C-alpha cells in the first residue's frame, strides 16, 4: 500500500456543530447555527452529561437569553413567551439545487452516515448505498462526493415525475467544511447596560408586521454591529462589553382572555369591511383603552410589573452586572413610560423610592410619616387619635383645620392617594373626585376615578406602581407625548422640572412621522423657533441629498445678499452727484453707516445663532441639554413625504442612526466616546 493510500485510509471523527430551528413566515423550517462560543459549550456539556450520566443539562446561550435543555433537545426563551424550538447536534447536511442553504440531517441519520463513512474510509470502499425508510438513498462516491437520491413510491404519485426530477440528486456534505454558512462569532459576556423597550399600539411593530420580540432582536443585532465598528478601540481595550435590549409586551395581556376586551368589542363590531375593522380594533383602539379608567391601569400595571420581573430575572442570570438601566418606548409605549416615570416617588436625601404598597409594610405610623418628611406632625396627629387608615379618610379641609401648613398638607394628600402630582408641574397636585363608573365584572380590572387638573382636562387617576430601579435615561421614539400633554391642558413645562427618578430624556423622531411631536417648544421661551438636533448618519456625515440642499440654500442666500448689496451701491451712485460730499456729522452724533451684518443676521427661517443658543434654557428634562432629535430622511423618502409617512413611524426598529444615538448617549456616561 502506498503512502498516499495509507493517508487516505486514516479516519478522523467529524466535528459537530449545534443548530436550532426557527419557523419562517412561509411556515418553512430554517436551521441556524449557534455561535462559535455557544456551540463548543453545548458540545462540552453534552459530552459531560454522557460520561457522568447526568439526566438533564441546561446551557444558557445567545447572551443568556435562551436556555438549551440538552436531553430534550429544545431551546427555551427566558425573557419572553415563545414556543420552544428544536436543537440538533449536526454533522451531516444536504442541499437541493433550488435550496438556498444546507439542511442538517437528524442526529440518528447522521450517526448511520458517519458509521458508513468510517467503514468506507477504513476499507477504501466507496461503493456503498444507504437506503432509508423515508425513501432516501445516500451514495458515498468518495471523500469529496456524496449524493442523495429521493425515490418517490408510486402510491404517492399525483402525476408521473419526469426523468429529470427522478435523477436530480441532492448534494451531501460531511461537517461544515465546504459549506457556505455564516456562523456568528458570539456576543461579549459582559453587559454594560440594560435597556427595556416598550412597543406602541397593536401587535405589529414595523412595516413587515413583525412583533416586538423580532424587532428588538434586530435592534440588538444592529447595536452589536455598531459596537464592533464604531467603538472598536474602546472595545479592544477591555473597557466595553455590550448593551442588552429586552422587549416588554403589554398588548398580549390587554387583549388576552383575562380582560375579555376582544370579545366585548367583537360583539359590537359591524360585519362590513371586516379586515379594516379588525385592524382598527387591534391597533387604534389601544389609544382609547389607555385613556380608559379601567384599562389604563391594566396597561400601566402590565408594563411596570413586566419591567420589574424581567429586571429581577436579568440580575439573577447576570450576578456580576453593575451597569445602569434605561427605558425606550415607541409611539404609545413612550407615553406609557412617560406617565409612569412622572409618577415615580423619591423621598429622603438618599433618594429612596417608597411606593404606596410599601407603606403598608412600615413598622409604625410614625415611620411612615418620617419617610415622607412629616415626622414632626406625628404628635399632632396621634393627639387626634389618628392612624394611617384614618388619615386616608381626611380631606384637605380637615388637615387645614388641624393647622397643618399648605406644603405638608399636599404631601399628606399625595401620601394617602387623594392627591397626585401633575406631570410636568412640580408642586402642583390635583384632587381626586369621585365619579360614577360603569365597571365590568372582569377580575383583572379595578375601580378607578378620573383626575382633573386645575390647568385643563385631566388624565386617568390610578395608583401608579413603582419601578425597582432608577433609570439612567428614557428614549422616546416617534412619540406623541407633546401632543398628549397639550391635550391634557399643559401649555408649558416648567424648565426646572425633571423626571423624579430619571435625569436624561431624549425625544427621537423621523421628520415625516405623523405621530411624533416635539417637546422642546413647551420648555424654551415662547417665540423661540429652534430646529431640532440633527442625528448624524451612522457613517459619519450628512446624507448627500441633505448636504446638496444646504449648499443650494447657502448659495441662494449669498446670491440674494450680493444682489441686495449691488442694488444699494447702484442706488447710491445714481442718487448722489460725484462732487457732493456726505454731510459732516455734528457733535454727539455719528455718520450714518450701512448696517453691518451681525453674528446672528444670517439666521433665517427661525434659526438661532450660536450666541443666542447659549442664552436659551432647555430645562432639566435632559439635565440642561437639548432633547429633541430628528433623523435624516433617506433620498427616496424626500421625493414624497406623504408616501412614506406610515413607514416613517415604524422605521426606528431598524434605524442604525437611532441605535448609534442610544449607544453614544449610554457610553458617554461611562466616559467612552466615539
UniProtKB/TrEMBL annotation:
<dbReference type="InterPro" id="IPR004177">
    <property type="entry name" value="DDHD_dom"/>
</dbReference>
<dbReference type="InterPro" id="IPR004170">
    <property type="entry name" value="WWE_dom"/>
</dbReference>
<feature type="domain" description="WWE">
    <location>
        <begin position="2"/>
        <end position="89"/>
    </location>
</feature>
<dbReference type="GO" id="GO:0004620">
    <property type="term" value="F:phospholipase activity"/>
</dbReference>
<dbReference type="GO" id="GO:0004806">
    <property type="term" value="F:triacylglycerol lipase activity"/>
</dbReference>
<dbReference type="Pfam" id="PF02862">
    <property type="entry name" value="DDHD"/>
</dbReference>
<dbReference type="InterPro" id="IPR057825">
    <property type="entry name" value="WWE_SEC23-DDH2"/>
</dbReference>
<dbReference type="InterPro" id="IPR057826">
    <property type="entry name" value="WWE_C20G8.02"/>
</dbReference>
<dbReference type="Pfam" id="PF23463">
    <property type="entry name" value="WWE_2"/>
</dbReference>
<feature type="domain" description="DDHD">
    <location>
        <begin position="467"/>
        <end position="668"/>
    </location>
</feature>
<dbReference type="GO" id="GO:0030134">
    <property type="term" value="C:COPII-coated ER to Golgi transport vesicle"/>
</dbReference>
<protein>
    <submittedName>
        <fullName>DDHD domain containing 2</fullName>
    </submittedName>
</protein>
<dbReference type="InterPro" id="IPR058055">
    <property type="entry name" value="PA-PLA1"/>
</dbReference>
<dbReference type="InterPro" id="IPR001660">
    <property type="entry name" value="SAM"/>
</dbReference>
<dbReference type="InterPro" id="IPR013761">
    <property type="entry name" value="SAM/pointed_sf"/>
</dbReference>
<dbReference type="GO" id="GO:0046872">
    <property type="term" value="F:metal ion binding"/>
</dbReference>
<comment type="similarity">
    <text>Belongs to the PA-PLA1 family.</text>
</comment>
<dbReference type="Pfam" id="PF23464">
    <property type="entry name" value="WWE_3"/>
</dbReference>
<dbReference type="Pfam" id="PF00536">
    <property type="entry name" value="SAM_1"/>
</dbReference>
